[in-house]
Every structure is written in C-alpha cells, then in structure tokens.
Amino acid sequence: MKFIKSLSQTKAPNTGIKKTVLKSQSISKYLIPLVWSIFIINTLFLIYYYPNIPKLQIGNLFEINGFSLVIWTVVTFFSAIVQTYSTRYMKGFKKLTSFLSLCIAFTFAVMIFVVSNHIALLLFFWFLMGIIMSKLIGVTTDWNEANEASLFARKNYLLSTLFLGIALMLLGFQTESFTINGILSKIDIIPPGTLTVASLLLVVAALIQSAIVPFHTWLLSAMTAPTPASALMHAGFVNGAGILLTLFAPLLFKANILLVIFIIGGVTAIIAQYSKLLQVNVKQKLACSTSAQMSFMIMQCGLGFFSAAITHLILHGFYKAYLFLSSGEEIENSNPKNTDQIIIKPLQTLFILSVSILGGVLFAVITGKGTQIDSGLFLTFIVAITVGQVTYNLINKSSLSITKKLTFLPILILIGIGLYGILFNGITLLMNDMPMSNVPVELSTTHIGFGIIFLVAFYIMLFGVYRKIPWLYVKLLNSSQPYSKSIITYKTKSL
Fold first, then answer.
1. More confident residue, 456 or 117
2. Helix spans in 236-375 (H)
3. How far is residue 171's CA from residue 149's CA, in Å, rounded to a whole number?
4. Whole-angstrom distance, CA of residue 203 vs CA of residue 198
5. What does DSSP assign to residue 91?
6. Are 467 and 339 in contact (CB under 8 A)?
7. By percentage, how much of the chain surpasses pLDDT 90?
C-alpha cells in the first residue's frame, strides 16, 4: 500500500504539469495569432496611408491617429515576439498560463491608454498598466523575493498614478474640460502657478515609470521577473514616460519646464552609465542600461524633440528586447575585473573625433537638425552617443580581431546614425498632427554649461577615473542596488 501511495504521489505533479502545458497551449493557439494579426494590420495600414494617417475620434473618449498607430504597431510586435518566445522558453512553467494572459492584458492596456482622450480613461489605464506589470514581476507567487519586488514596484506605480491623477484633476477643473484635447486648447486660461505645479506632477509621474533617478530602484529589483517579462518591461512599459510627455507636449512648453526635464534626464544618464559598469550580473547591467537610455529619451523631450523621443523609444525597444531574450546565453556572476588603462593616442583621438563629426553631419543632412544654433545641436550629440555606445557594445562582443573591430566600428556607427535619422523623419511625419512634437528650443548658457559637465563626466567614465575615488565608487555601488527585500533574504525550505 505504501508503494502504491508513493507512486500516486509522484504521478500527481506530472499530471499537473501536463494540464498546465495543455492550458497554455490552448491560450497561445488563439491569443498569440491575434496579437500577430493586429501587428500586421497596423503595419499595412501605416504603409498604405503613410504619411497622411486619417484621424478617428470616438466621441470624447478616444482618438486614433498616426502617433497612436505607431505605438500600437510597436507594442503588438514586442508583445507577440515575447509571447511566442515564452511558449518555448517557459515550457513546463506552472504559471505560464497566467504569464501569457497578463502579457495579453498588458498589450491591450497600453493600446487603450495611448488612444484615451478622456483623462479618466487615461488615468485608469496608466494605473492598470502598472498593476499588470507588477503582477508580471511577481508571477512566481511562491517566490518570496519576487513577491517583495512586485509589491515594491506596485507602490512606485501607485505613487506615479497619484501624481498623474492630481495633475489631471488640477488641469481638468481649472479648464472645466476633462479631455486631453480640451485641456490643451485652454492652456492659456490656466494660472501660471497651477500650470507649473500640474506640469511638474505630470513629469514626476513619467519619471517614476521610466525608472529615472531617484525612482530607479524598482527597476533594479524587478529582475526577479522571468526573462520574457523583463523583455516586455524594458521594451514597452518603461517607455511610458515618452508617450505621456508627448501627449502633453504643449503643456510642458507653456509651463517652461523643458530645461528642468533636460537636466533631470542628463543627470540620470550619467549616474546610470556609471552604475552599469559596476554590475556583475547581466540582467542588472541591462536594467542600468535601460535607465540610461530612458534618460536620453527624457533629454530629447527636454530639447523639444518629442518625435525623436518616440524614435528613441522604438529603437531602444528593439535593442533591449533582443538583449533580454538572448541573455540566457550569457547569464553569469563574475568577480569584477580591473579595468585596463585606456591610452588614446593623438591619431586615434583624431580618428574618433572625425567619425563623430562625420556622423553628426550625416544626421544633420538627413534630418535638418543641428544646422542651426538651437537644441538640434544637442539632439545630434545625443544620437551620436547613443548609436556609438550600442554599436561598441555589439561589436565588442564579437570575436573579431582588434583591427577588424576598429575598421567596422566607424562604418557601423555611420550606418546606425543614418538609420536613426531616416526613422526619425518617418516618425515625425506620422506625428504631424501631434501639437508641438518637434519644436527645437533656444540654447541657453545652462544648456551649454550642462553639456560641458556631461562631457567631463563621460571622460571620467571612459578612463575609469571614478574607480580611483573610493567615496564615489562606493556611492555609485550603493545607489545601484535593488530593494533589499527583493534579494535573497528568506530561508528556503529544505527539500
């Protein structure tokens, strides 16, 4: 009898796994093709009507235009890729059905959020996006650290929703209009004080979701999520700030806080870049990288180029989804290694400088930005840094010789900048009905001064000088740690 009883106990888990697999296969059989179909329909629609996308309004509740269709296309593509990948990568995972269902729910939440014109709908789906993402982070419900990370992330998302809610209520009651279009059409009647407060609250709500310092800890803690969930989070969810700020671009211009946004983005970009160098876990490195890239996106908003921010959002999504979905090949913890001293010879310096200038000229020729003394110069600078870093990271992983790397690096940088410029032009055309989505601002002494500080900080990072300053090294290391309860703190039951 004992033998029979033990046999039945060993078969039970296998039966449960089979039921889970069958259920997940049933969901993936219908829902994943649905998401792929939506992506294909959106893509064909954009191609057919490009660049004059017809606008559709459904009462005061929803507005579908070129901007929303671009976001729909991007989100459905990433969602479909992640879900298709998950059906094989997470096969046998007992929560796979819940995971796939949450991915579908998140996809539709983003889609409805981006077309919401009524502020109640906008706020609700902003809230819903956060709740669903927190559940994805803690989808492994029997893992205490994952539950803590989920709870910590949810608290941040609720705080973001609170700030956004207060901002929208201030704007709504002041203008006696509760739609985005209505509020933006009555900006001039909003008192300056109310306008500034509401704009700052809206910006803070965006910064929290995009893990901008000091709100970046939730993203570092969220690495307990399954890798496909991390891919969806970094390719879609954290980009919400770019969408939100673009929707309210005229408000930010009127409140005259773009310079503040630019500086916040720049400071976080510096901190996140340094923090990335201190990480020994590949997912933590990717998290710091995402925070840095979101900072560049915020900087572009602060320069008045919201269409460039959306372009950056899209390209970052592709790049980061690829890195997360391929991270299983290289996940490892290793002891930090001493950084070799970088010695740049005069000829090498001249070569790198020449490629950078040539890349800037190429971007200026393609987009027309950077040809005048305005924020377009900084946009060109940000694009060159971003493309340069991504290209360097990709080529540095290859097994090419040093000579070949030095040969291919400038070629790939120029190709990358060219593609960035072409996509930027295309996105700008699709967003032509979005007010003030591509308006350069006048350069100020603050812009120039901060640009110099940014270059100095980049130089210190490049040459590893920060490693020789103990207090700075420790400060950066401490600031780049996840929430304490989301790391291994619970006792594991013995098997």
1. 117
2. 240-247, 249-255, 258-278, 282-302, 306-325, 346-367
3. 33
4. 9
5. T
6. yes
7. 33
Yes or no: say if 480 and 278 are a contact pair by the CB < 8 Å rule.
yes
Dihedral angle at the C-alpha atoms of 260, 265, 268, 274, nearest 10 degrees? -130
SS3 336: coil
Give residue 397's pLDDT band: very low, low, confident or very high (50, 70, 90). Answer: low
For 123-132, write each residue's pLDDT tens digit: 999 999 999 9
Token reading at 181? 């279009």
For residue 446, give the 3-state DSSP assignment.
Answer: helix
Closest of 103, 132, 115 to residue 64, by C-alpha: 115
DSSP letters spanning 420-438: HHHHHHHHHHHTTTSTTSB
**Helix H or strand E encompassing 62:** strand 62-64
Q: How confident is the model at residue 108 (pLDDT cuts 50, 70, 90)?
A: very high
Question: For residue 147, how many other CB atoms are within 10 A of its CB?
Answer: 18
- pTM of the predicted model as reported, rounded to 2 decimal places: 0.85
CB 473 within 8 A of CB 288: no
Specify the length of the chain in residues: 495
pLDDT attached to residue 42: 92
Which of the listed ranges 69-78, 206-215, 387-396, 474-483 does the model predict with the highest average pLDDT? 69-78
Helices 240-247 and 96-115 cross at an angle (nearest 10°) of: 20
Q: What is the rounded distance in angstroms from the CA atom of residue 59 to the CA atom of residue 63?
A: 8
pLDDT at 115 over 90: yes
**For residue 272, what are the contacts with CB-CB under 8 A and spacing of at least 6?**
213, 216, 288, 289, 291, 292, 295
Report the half-sphere exposure of 111 (CA within 13 A, side-chain side): 19
* pLDDT number for residue 161: 95
Tokens of 445: 């002494």
64 phi, psi to nearest 5 deg: -110, 125
Instruction: Look at residue 72 and give its three-state secondary structure.
Output: helix
